[in-house]
Amino acid sequence: MWTLNTSPKVNVHVAQTGDCYDCHTNESLLKGMLRLGRKGIPVGCVNGGCGVCKVRIVEGAVRALGPVSRAHVSCDEEAQGYTLACRVAPTATVRLEVSARLSKPFSHPGNSSTTSNTKET
């Protein structure tokens, strides 16, 4: 069943490629990122335990949707802006860097595009 998400949206920028996407303030950065339609974006456990969606928040603000495993994001990394895209939602425009396994779908020259997806979910 489809429901219209009426929460505000903010823009999210992927620093490495210039990709942009809209993300509702009540959904994870990963869920919004998946709407880009890139092949190979890894989706693991989607609850902070596997670490495949690790990102660094370069600018902007996010809020926690749940806990993040310290096995994947240490306290020191968190202080440097690292988090898991599946466990945070944006509260303002965000610029992020993808890291680790998440970087592969964003590193192929043929995959780069600047997109703003406004499809409601």
TrEMBL record:
Gene3D superfamilies named among the record's database cross-references: 3.10.20.30
GO MF term set: 2 iron, 2 sulfur cluster binding
InterPro entries: 2Fe-2S_ferredoxin-like_sf, 2Fe-2S_ferredoxin-type, 2Fe2S_fd_BS, Beta-grasp_dom_sf
Span of domain 2Fe-2S ferredoxin-type: 8-102
Superkingdom of the source species: Bacteria
Pfam families: Fer2
Protein name: 2Fe-2S iron-sulfur cluster binding domain-containing protein
Protein species of origin: Diaphorobacter ruginosibacter
